[in-house]
Amino acid sequence: MTKPAEVNTAVSGRVSSEAHTMPELLDIQRAAFLRDGIPDAKTRIDRITRLSSLLLDNADEIAEALNEDFGTRPRELSLAADVAGCMVDLTHQRRGVEKWMQESNTAKVQGALGFKQRIRHDPLGVVGIMGPWNFPLQLTFVPAGAAFAAGNRVLMRPSSITARTTDVIAKHAPDYFSIEELAVITSKHGGGADFAKLKVDHMFFTGSPEVGASVAQEAAKNLVPVTLELGGKNPAVVDPDADIDKAATMLADARMVNGGQVCLCPDYVFVPEAKVGEFTDKVIARWTANFATVRNNPEYTATINQKNYDRILGLIADAQELGADVRQVVPAGEPLPDAEKRKIAPTLLTGVKAGMKIEEDEVFGPVLTVYPYRDLAEAIRYIAAHPHPLTMYWCGDDNENLARLADGTRSGSINANDFALHMFGAELPFGGVGRSGMGGYHGKTGFDTFSHARAIAVSSMPLKVAEMMSPPFTARDAKMTNGQMKLWRRLNKRAIKKLKKR
């Protein structure tokens, strides 16, 4: 691993971001951006490399901090998700940036006639990134990498809920970056609401729809564009011809990633009515095999805090009181749920109906709801009638039924037969739609999000648009206008004829 001192040629002195207020940090970065101008490819690649080094060099300390923040979080998950999980996209950004930042010539034929058109891909300036607590580093470092690729400076605010993890990053960041490039914002600077009020050039937020709406409102007061990566109740649909054992196993595992605290976890599943019993039995069997113990299991991620622990138990209790059937995997001799350790047993619900809170609220915990369906149209109608989810799961072949599901619903993405597959394809965009978010990132999509596509048009033609469109209008102008109208009417009639023949 490259040592920080060898890659960080831009750092002059070790200055912590906590030595300045948030507005001061914004002013420092904006002044540096204006002073230094648009960075070249080497500088951008260097910043992305240092961002990777910050994670990789301090991985063990990060994993320990995450374990302390959650109460229980397996080291393997923390390293895989919040360290190694960042590297696919950071590496892709590093490899692609030199090509992406080049100007693109859009009109070669017109250029030969004296009308040149091209597009620059310019950085915006200073980007603000607000991260959530469930994957506090992956969901800040990956967008930060895209912002660096696009040539920006970054104000990064990891979640204050995972305060120990944020402190680790804030402590080590000055060894890799000057605050002119990357400044880590902590709770000592103020709350997330204060950060959302900053007049940055782009605000990127990952979190709940409720908080996302507040961030968007604050940003709108300053006309700051936003990218919102939000959550939602992600549905799964099991094809009538799917292998029930494989479907149940995958969805049981996917629900328990990070203790169910992932915006991409399946929230509820539609299963062919005749196979519901088999499906639920296999889910319970999978959980029973995986979790011989829960309360003292260091690999079973605890619920992040008391507030969320109480909220999840409230959703289960409400559903049970209103008639839902509840099945839980409680190892013998373990008093679950356990408030001290914030451990909730894997829970499966059936018989959930309208009026139950869990029908509308995202669970974000170790609870899976199962609905029966007789015809795929039932599942499609239900999903389409609810807010668009961040992702959707399909268990079955890449067939006509999958096409029906995709055509009849809206979601940020669709993953078939495995968990969060689109996260591992560097070329695929990541983002929600409707209530699950706006805008996207990952790969070139991330570069584009934090860039401005700036049009450049240059004319050396003798005929000037300015002269044609300003008084006095001559007979020549009228002739040219009439000629244009005839041309466009003729082309439109031709399009109508072609449409009728289709």
TrEMBL record:
InterPro entries: Ald_DH/histidinol_DH, Ald_DH_C, Ald_DH_CS_GLU, Ald_DH_N, Aldehyde_DH_dom, Aldehyde_DH_NAD(P). The keyword S-adenosyl-L-methionine does not apply. Transmembrane segments: none annotated. It holds the Pfam family Aldedh. It comes from the Bacteria. The active site is at E229. Keywords: Oxidoreductase. Residues 40-455 form the Aldehyde dehydrogenase domain. Belongs to the aldehyde dehydrogenase family. This is Aldehyde dehydrogenase. It comes from Gordonia hankookensis.
